[in-house]
Amino acid sequence: MRCPLSLFKGHGRGGATPPGAKRRGAASELFVGQDTEITAFDGRQPPTIEGTCHRLRTFTVKFSDFSVGQIIAAGTHTVEESSIVRFGTDFDPQPFHVDKDAATAGHWHGLIASGFHNCSIAMRLVADHILRGSDSYASPGLEYVKWPAPVRPGDTLTLKVEVLGVRRPRFGEFGIVRWQWSMTNQRSETVLDLIATSLFGLR
């Protein structure tokens, strides 16, 4: 299940809603702020998200839907201890990812998720909330990826994606979107920060 894509147009993070803000095009012209009302990209109100989405997005996201300054609310995910151990066992078997006793006695004082597990969580949220059913084709890669704070069992992670650039080549069948993914925990600590480039079909 996926929530409707929520797109915001603002002058950076934390801006206030300007007086008399009006709708423009398919998306609401909203400014990101603590008290900003979230409006779905298709004009409907999304449900309150508590780990799981409850309504299916029914439209296709196209390259033309993106513009510089948009911030996309890409949902939340609560991390379970078992998933940390399972991912670590399969792909990153360091003691602080797979052995609770060793992790508690070590530097981190408890289990933490692999940074690549965090990337996978963010990728799933983007896939469910933006890319699934879209004109997305591929990504040539990342400019950087950072894990500023650890993810621990029980953390609820929230992902926001800011569009930094859009480019339509003179020739070719793909539009280019450059965007920053920022994932925070319930304490508003950033646990994942990356910049990616994605290709979308020009249909």
What is the 3D shape?
elongated
Domain module tally? 1
Label the structural class: alpha+beta
Strand order of the largest sheet: 1-4-6-7-8-5
Q: Report helical residue fraction.
A: 10-25%
Q: What is the fourth-level CATH superfamily?
A: Hotdog Thioesterase
Main sheet: strands, sense, barrel:
6 strands, antiparallel
CATH architecture: Roll
Name the beta content range.
Answer: 25-35%
Tally the beta strands.
8
End-to-end distance: 26 Å
Order of helices and strands: EEEEHHHHEEEE
The helix count comes to 4
Give the integer mean of the pLDDT values.
79
**Low confidence ranges:** 1-58
Radius of gyration: 18 Å
CATH class: Alpha Beta
The name of the CATH topology is Thiol Ester Dehydrase, Chain A
Give a written overview of the molecule.
- With 203 residues, the chain is of the alpha+beta class.
- The protein has a single domain, classed as Thiol Ester Dehydrase, Chain A, CATH 3.10.129.10.
- The protein is 19% helix and 31% strand.
- It has four helices and eight strands.
- The strands form two sheets. A six-stranded antiparallel sheet has the order 1-4-6-7-8-5. Strands 2-3 form a two-stranded antiparallel sheet.
- The radius of gyration is 18 Å and the shape is elongated.
- It starts with 5 loop residues before the first strand and ends with a strand.
- The N terminus is likely disordered.
Would you kindly provide a brief summary of this structure?
This protein is α+β, with helices and mostly antiparallel strands and 203 residues long. It has helices spanning 81-91, 95-98, 100-105, 115-131; strands spanning 6-9, 23-24, 27-28, 70-78, 136-146, 156-167, 174-184, 190-201.
